[in-house]
Amino acid sequence: MKRAHPIAEVAVVVPAKDEEELLPRCLSSVHAAVAALAGACPHVRASVTVVLDGCRDGSAAVVAGWPSTHAVEADAGNAGGARDIGVRRALAAARASTDQVWVATTDADSRVPPDWLLQHLALAEQGVSLLIGTVEPDGADLGASRLRAWFDAHRLGDGHHHVFGANLGIRADVYEALGGFPGLDSGEDVALVQAAKAHGVRWRATDACRVLTSGRLHGRASGGFADYLAAALPP
Fold first, then answer.
1. How far apart are CA 232 and CA 207, in angstroms?
2. Can you list the domains of the chain with their CATH numbers?
3. How many whole angstroms separate alpha carbon 122 and alpha carbon 87?
4. In this structure, are residues 12 and 51 in contact, taking their beta carbons and an 8 Å threshold?
5. In sequence order, which residues have a C-beta less than 8 Å from that of residue 64 and are 6 or more positions away?
6. pTM for the model
7. Per residue in 23-73, pLDDT tens?
8. In whole angstroms, what is the distance from residue 208 CA to residue 115 CA?
């Protein structure tokens, strides 16, 4: 699955499930990253797609406040299905062929750094087809002791062994060849990464574009990141 085509388009996909409180800061950070990409690489087009998965709160109104963001109403009922719907909708609207599109995923409760997409693109231009990025939970949510426990248990440097759906990037043609994110409540990110490695996809685990994600202990997805934090970290 070696690819040498330059990236002409970046598609950012964000699944959301009743995230009206945290979605504004997520979209603000994503659009800052899009602006940074546009400033440095004006030839690369970017799109942002938010999948409103059965939302009953004001998430749709939040997205409407960003006219350049595409909202997709869905009823996937799980994180994997929502991500996949968003990716496929973004690719259907893409102007470039899939071998020239880079898909970057994050979560509605997360904030990406300003150079997030630039870092993704830099690795893509080196021939990497799958970027496995890092996240860290918001210390304001966890508290000092839990945050220390998190860093004690997670080594987040380059070459790390973690997988976070809030910071993944993949070439669109590779994504399609692998069948996309499976429709799972949790672990869809790990499943996609495992499939990519099994098929010999060139990948890189990097800490160059770490994402800040919510440290809440009660999340939206059963078995998701919040449940993981609650089970793994001491009170």
1. 21
2. 9-139+155-215 (3.90.550.10)
3. 21
4. no
5. 71
6. 0.93
7. 999 999 999 999 999 999 999 999 999 999 999 999 999 999 999 999 999
8. 9
